[in-house]
Amino acid sequence: MTTPTQHPHSTRRADELHLATIGAGRIGTNHAELVARRIPGARLAAVADPSPEAAQRLGAQLGAEATSAEEVFENPDIDGVLITAPARVHTDLVVAAAAAGKHVFCEKPMAVSLPDADRAIRAAADAGVILQVGFNRRFAPGFAAARDAIVRGKVGTPQILRSLTRDPGPFLGDPMRTPQWTIFRETLIHDFDALCWLNPGAAPATVHAFADALVSPEARAAGHLDTAVVSIRFDNGAMATADANFSAAYGYDVRAEAFGSAGMVTTGSCRATDMTLHDAAGIHAETSRRDTDLLRDAYLAELQTFADAIRHGSPVGPTGAEARTALSIAVAAIRSIETGAPVSISDVLPALDGLGSGAIS
Amino acid sequence: MTTPTQHPHSTRRADELHLATIGAGRIGTNHAELVARRIPGARLAAVADPSPEAAQRLGAQLGAEATSAEEVFENPDIDGVLITAPARVHTDLVVAAAAAGKHVFCEKPMAVSLPDADRAIRAAADAGVILQVGFNRRFAPGFAAARDAIVRGKVGTPQILRSLTRDPGPFLGDPMRTPQWTIFRETLIHDFDALCWLNPGAAPATVHAFADALVSPEARAAGHLDTAVVSIRFDNGAMATADANFSAAYGYDVRAEAFGSAGMVTTGSCRATDMTLHDAAGIHAETSRRDTDLLRDAYLAELQTFADAIRHGSPVGPTGAEARTALSIAVAAIRSIETGAPVSISDVLPALDGLGSGAIS
Amino acid sequence: MTTPTQHPHSTRRADELHLATIGAGRIGTNHAELVARRIPGARLAAVADPSPEAAQRLGAQLGAEATSAEEVFENPDIDGVLITAPARVHTDLVVAAAAAGKHVFCEKPMAVSLPDADRAIRAAADAGVILQVGFNRRFAPGFAAARDAIVRGKVGTPQILRSLTRDPGPFLGDPMRTPQWTIFRETLIHDFDALCWLNPGAAPATVHAFADALVSPEARAAGHLDTAVVSIRFDNGAMATADANFSAAYGYDVRAEAFGSAGMVTTGSCRATDMTLHDAAGIHAETSRRDTDLLRDAYLAELQTFADAIRHGSPVGPTGAEARTALSIAVAAIRSIETGAPVSISDVLPALDGLGSGAIS
Amino acid sequence: MTTPTQHPHSTRRADELHLATIGAGRIGTNHAELVARRIPGARLAAVADPSPEAAQRLGAQLGAEATSAEEVFENPDIDGVLITAPARVHTDLVVAAAAAGKHVFCEKPMAVSLPDADRAIRAAADAGVILQVGFNRRFAPGFAAARDAIVRGKVGTPQILRSLTRDPGPFLGDPMRTPQWTIFRETLIHDFDALCWLNPGAAPATVHAFADALVSPEARAAGHLDTAVVSIRFDNGAMATADANFSAAYGYDVRAEAFGSAGMVTTGSCRATDMTLHDAAGIHAETSRRDTDLLRDAYLAELQTFADAIRHGSPVGPTGAEARTALSIAVAAIRSIETGAPVSISDVLPALDGLGSGAIS
Predict the structure, then answer these.
(1) What is the domain-level CATH number for residue D118?
(2) What is the model's pLDDT at position A3?
């Protein structure tokens, strides 16, 4: 960190980064553990959650103070926060954290509306803090190698792209309590970011979507959506598809493909290990059943990147502007479902004055 | 064949099937060779082409009579014909062949308009001849195994499907002379059939398409299209994507995926053999550069199936009605490009009275 | 064929090759069908077997004369024979066929002793007929690509090689009736040839073997062997291993690997198709259960090669001398089992005067 | 740890484990970094090396005291040591560490002679300290899954096993300064352990080896060996091969295979990520070039296991007795090279009174 704030009564080591997590749910726990145990030079100083019990349980387990978001923001000994609360409160927490001068790692989505995205970006810009969004795939080794090959020109100009997310089944959630547009704003948002990132320099132009409740058809009447196919046209001519489903019987499935004028890269595999079994029934391999297994290295790398960004004053993203671009595709996809027609990004995305483009260079 | 017509002056063996190819181009040559050399009990009796030189060259090479389509139809010694002429004349040849009592194997597409499709189907039905369409993927071992797994319920109810065609590059055609909607009517028609076939019992309902001239942008103004992404909604809720490109640097690429409530099947690979080379630059494998390499077994199997169908009076398809269904998706995709909006199949496909459904059971 | 013998009363077409199979068992039936149906320009003229019923059944099925080996040799209308009888009579049949002026395709092994191998080679040489041995792996696309990569220097100088054969289980034979050294002389003989062929220009020098009756331990006391691991040292320094087992639960498994100073090639796969199923139990693929499925293309290509060799007078092997080299490894492996010590090839292989080296160039 | 020794003047946290590394070379640095940064609850308290500069450089980098082995042993504040010095001094360090009451993680090989192995085992037993040996493959996810499948009976009774190690090339060492039997005692020792571990309950019985200087033939006269193929017979009938080479052009290659009466498991891959590139030259993937990349997870897991073993008093191995078993195969292989004959393990391995069997249950 360029100018680490040192609290007068702090016993911290001069070179140690103090981070706090806000939200002690499944992903919050995952991130808290990684910070506490696997990020050299970083210390999990505090764990906040609206439920004091949840905070205390996790804090005790990891040797961190159990506290509230408000106290984290007021604590001068905290350098940065990881926002792992439910999606609907992300933006308010980003804004509050930035206002308190904390660097921010925000789980995706950074916002569930474009005005909220603008608020978050503006707050971070005004405060001069780092805002990194949790698009973990960028840090998965295979995805990173794919992007690297694209940047080095190995596939030429991208022409057809694909990204998908299939959450491991069976779906155990309550479809009636899942926010209506979750599949676009929280699931496919990963794919929308990945597609933009794998098509460097291009911006999404037009979006068409199909969606339905195929996993939980009983919730269809209530507007629940658990299966979707989205197609996207980019301003460099490239065309992309993204699909998602809430219940993949075989586990967690995250893949991408980029086809261009000179070749193609593919990445992603559900294989859990390189072990293969051959028996009387054929050839078999085991699958990864959880995102925290399949993307373990990616989670670690994104948090390491956040720590390094604070330390060295060198943010690498994914940035707030990039998250806003991904969100714009989600918003257009939602409007496409509502209207049954393709939707132009320019119709949903007003110009973002003075905050830079979300196009990924 | 149930009642083979025996010409009075024929010297044919009683149990030998006499076939003729109409069209001596690249695929016509491929099919003629397979009939002449690899289909037991079948004989390539004649080769027809508007160019007598082309017919004579191929006929001489394979020991078959060089002739014209008209003479083939008049020749009582011919049991069936393989139509491998340019797409625009397929329907007229199907109708003429059927009228002459010949069984018909027609390369895809069977027709380039729905009225033509109806003409072809009706002609075959009226004449009582077999009409089999050249959707070769159904006969590729991996595709057949995928369909078999679906039929046996291994993936549950299909929810998300994918099919793609990437023709081997560099594109050597003249984009200005390629018929405008070729990518939908001649290329993606394979994928449209594959998607219906991998979603048994369902019918396509709505189609949305993006397309552009990304390989040959200089021909864009003339309406040329060489890259497309199509999304399709089926009446069982399943959603599908199909994509195509005329110039895959790495060779011929044909793949499919079907995801359902109980699992997923994937099929298709560009690998030429199971040989893998590891060297200082990494891990390498060779690709198939031509459809006639990648799908060699499929071409042989579809022609064997046609021969068996004639012999045993047991047609197995792909039928004319199924080809019409695939064509209806192509027609809807073209209209989607023209209008910029999704298109209902019911808006392009009038009821086909008395000719049966194209849904693949 | 350079000088095809034309029988005065023959009705054969001038350019048609007449072949006969001797032995109507499982592989004989496979080869007979391929000649009858899949080799352009070749005709299955006759089928011989000590059992007239077996010959008649196969002959009737394929439209070939049912006869005896003696009549085949006497028939001037036969250009070449395929010897698919039991291994122990191979040499006598090769010698008789050569004496009768017939070109010979002999299933492996060409002989079960080195003096027999010499007899076979000498007979073919004296008669000036082609002698091709049925080492089918050389014609499998992946193996051929591996050899091609080696010949082009892609792996540098071979240093470590591997080849294996696992016959599909369960083992249904009667271990008490299986000839004692079958695993070396009939099974691993394929691997011994493959290893020499993948190490061009080198000759085997020393052989060590382990073997046991692990599949049928009840036959161990009788000397039955169904599992073996052989290591081989070549005169260019390369070291190889070969292993075999009579009962692979997962099907027919044939693979090879060649590691050298510049890289490595691997080939062979039990996958039946490119279809992969993902379900709640993981990732699955089907296996090939029979040699005639896994190596179908290889069987066809070796017979096509034999037909072309006769036609064009251009034999390409595998030659008798190469088969003798493979057999020398089998003989050394057997002696290694008998003595418990490594065995030098020079101790089992006397010089073959005037008949050329078996080293594969 | 059951009864952690607390130094009177220590500032350590009660629950923190203090570890020291002895040897600051390549692997020592790797292990020191993992302890310092990635093992929760463990602290890298000291780094020792005969070269004070090396110790100071690494210590400064990781915030650990730079010291000597002797001081580490005398320091009551150290709970356990990681021995990462050159192989020839491993045993003496194990003995000294055990005498000082330190738990020991010893990089392979634990010893270079069987008497040394006995000394190490006895010293740890007498002192009641944990002795874990660095056979990292056991902790690689694919290898662990393979072993798990074997233990669960998925392959039935093992009959044919394979393990290999190909170090990444080009070979940059000085072959004249590499200890003569390094390929057996330091490289293949991994494979010998893996083969025993993948054949649970069985003991090695007979060993045959071939070896040569194929990478550095100029050092052959001096006895250098860089390529080897070893075959091993186990007392349950299973047969195994192991091979090694010091210069794989394509990177670090570690694989294993276990074939049994009910199936086969394979594990190991040189792929660096799941990214695949298709271009005009074919299909490509990148390889892992270093053991510390390919086996990163395994290195972390074995050190975590050591830390957990100290903490919970529950050692899981690999034990000293298991390391002695692997060494016995290396010793037999060396004698096989010296004599040119197979060697019985019973001839090299005297009974180890009172110290338990090395068979892996």
Answers:
(1) 3.40.50.720
(2) 42
For B292-325, how does the pLDDT look when each residue is reduced to its tens digit (9 = 90+)? Answer: 888 999 999 999 999 999 999 989 999 999 999 9
Same domain, D167 and D235: yes
Q: Given CB atoms, is C89 within the 8 Å cutoff of chain B?
A: no
CA B220 to chain C, closest CA, distance in angstroms equals 36
Query: Is ipTM over 0.85?
Result: yes
Report the CATH number at residue A191: 3.30.360.10
Q: Which residue of A has its CA nearest to C282?
A: A286
Q: Which of C105, C136, C167 is where one domain is finished? A: C136
Note whether A231 contacts B247, CB cutoff 8 Å.
no
- Chain C residues within an 8 Å CB radius of A271: 283
pLDDT tens across B127-138, in order?
999 999 999 999
Residues D216 and D325 in one domain: yes
Q: Where are the alpha helices (DSSP H) in C63-178?
A: 69-74, 90-99, 114-127, 141-151
Chains that touch A (3 or more CB pairs under 8 A): B, C, D
**Does residue A21 form part of some domain?**
yes
| Residue D67 to chain A, least CA–CA distance (Å) | 23
CB contacts of A233 in chain B (<8 Å) are 210
Are A150 and A238 contained in the same domain? yes
The answer to the question of residue A6 being in a domain is no
Check whether residue D207 and residue D343 sit in a common domain. yes
- Per the domain annotation, does C265 fall within a domain? yes
Please indicate, yes or no, whether residues B203 and B338 belong to a single structural domain of this protein.
yes
Report residue C45 as tokens: 């003229």
Chain D (263-282) residues lying within 8 Å, Cβ to Cβ, of chain A: 263-269, 271-280
User: Cα(B89)–Cα(B114) distance, rounded to whole angstroms?
Assistant: 14
> How many structural domains compose chain C?
2
| B26 and D CB contact within 8 Å | no
End-to-end CA distance of chain C: 25
- Long-range pairs, B336-344, Cβ under 8 A, ≥24: B336/B207, B336/B208, B336/B209, B336/B230, B337/B209, B337/B210, B337/B211, B337/B225, B340/A342, B341/A341, B341/A342, B341/B208, B342/A208, B342/A340, B342/A341, B342/A342, B342/B206, B342/B207, B342/B208, B343/B206, B343/B207, B343/B208, B344/B205, B344/B206
For residue A71, the enclosing domain spans 17-136
Task: Give the torsion through C-alpha atoms of A43, A45, A48, A54, to 10 deg.
Answer: 80
B301, part of any domain: no
* Residue among D251, D253, D278 whose CB faces B250 most closely: D278
Instruction: Using CA coordinates, name the residue in chain D closest to A36.
Output: D40
In degrees and rounded to multiples of 5, residue A100 shows phi and psi of -85, 0
Q: Which pLDDT tens digits describe chain C residue by residue (361 residues)?
A: 334 444 444 456 667 899 999 999 999 999 999 999 889 889 999 999 999 999 999 999 999 999 999 999 999 999 999 999 999 999 999 999 999 999 999 999 999 999 999 999 999 999 999 999 999 999 999 999 999 999 999 999 999 999 999 999 999 999 999 999 999 999 999 999 999 999 999 999 999 999 999 999 999 999 999 999 999 999 999 999 999 999 999 999 999 999 999 999 999 999 999 999 999 999 999 999 988 888 999 999 999 999 999 999 989 999 999 999 999 999 999 999 999 999 999 999 875 554 544 555 5
Do C152 and C183 have their domain in common? yes
- Domain-terminating residue out of C115, C136, C157: C136
Q: Based on the domain organization, do B127 and B142 belong to the same domain?
A: no
Q: Which residues of D touch B249 (CB under 8 A)?
A: 278-280
CB distance from A110 to chain B under 8 Å? no
Q: How far, in Å, CA of D54 to CA of C70, rounded?
A: 84
B160 in the same domain as B124:
no
Q: Which residues of chain B does A262 touch, with a Cβ-Cβ cutoff of 8 Å?
A: 249
* B-chain residues near D171 (CB < 8 A): none
